[in-house]
Amino acid sequence: MPFTNFDSRHFSAAEKTTVNNAVTALETALAPKLANLSADERQQYGSVNEQNKLIINKVKDFRDSQPNLSSPDVDWTEFLNDFDTRAFLQTNIQRLQSLIDGLNNAKILHDWDNYQAALSDYDFAKYKVTTQAVGYQTKVNELGQFFAGRPAGSTQTAKQGDENVVV
Q1: Distance of alpha carbon 47 from alpha carbon 50, whole angstroms
Q2: Angle at Cα 162 formed by Cα 161 and Cα 167, nearest 5°?
Q3: Per-residue model confidence (pLDDT) at position 161
Q4: Who contacts 18 (Cβ-Cβ below 8 Å, separation ≥6)?
Q5: Is residue 127 helix, strand or coil?
Q6: Spatial separation of the C-alpha atoms in residues 81 and 152, rounded to whole Å
Q7: What is the average per-residue pLDDT within 127-150?
Q8: How confident is the model over 83-98, as pLDDT tens digits?
Q9: Residues 6 or more apart from 110 whose CB is under 8 A from it?
Q10: Alpha-carbon distances, residue 152 vs 80, 144, 145, 164, 167 (angstroms)
Q11: Which of 80, 88, 126, 144 has the fewest CB atoms within 10 Å distance of its CB?
């Protein structure tokens, strides 16, 4: 796919309203369930790593298959509620992360499209300066500050490593 002019990917006013309303509804629904942990609390409670999750899963398996082996000191209703809520949250985090990744990728493409159009406009302004057209010299001077340190007249983009670099 060429990376210019993403006409079909623009949001209409109605689509923007729909998305904003959906996000607001999600924020409202989740607000009473969210937690705000300090850095210390994240360190303390974040110690349930993958190995420890395996322990939790195994204890749940034993609870489900052989409840007579379960400790009477554990509130098993709370344990199962925590387990179910954690699974629900994880599923929704994955779904939301997928949306966030898609939104970030779409934004990157629109940023690129804007940048390419801006470079074309700058090149046009530089051309108009050569024709002595009024007002273009000021525009070129103001835009030229963003290209300081590059070879004179260079606005072309080159690939360097995994990053796009303007040369």
Answers
A1: 9
A2: 65
A3: 46
A4: none
A5: helix
A6: 65
A7: 94
A8: 999 999 999 999 999 9
A9: 6, 9
A10: 67, 10, 12, 19, 10
A11: 88
Write down the H helix ranges in the chain: 13-30, 39-45, 50-65, 76-130, 136-144
Residue in 82, 88, 99 with CA at minimum distance from that of residue 30: 88
Encoded tokens for 90: 């994880």
Q: How many beta carbons lie within 10 A of that of residue 5, not counting itself? A: 11
Q: How far apart are CA 60 and CA 157, in angstroms?
A: 55
- Single-letter residue type at 92: N
Q: Which two tokens stand for residue 127?
A: 């051309």
Helix (H, G, I), strand (E, B) or coil at 160: strand
DSSP β-bridge partners for residue 159: 164
Closest to 77 (Cα-Cα) out of 88, 89, 63, 65: 63
Query: Would you list the domain boundaries of the chain?
Result: 51-145
pLDDT surpassing 90 at residue 103? yes
Contact 104, 122 (CB under 8 A): no
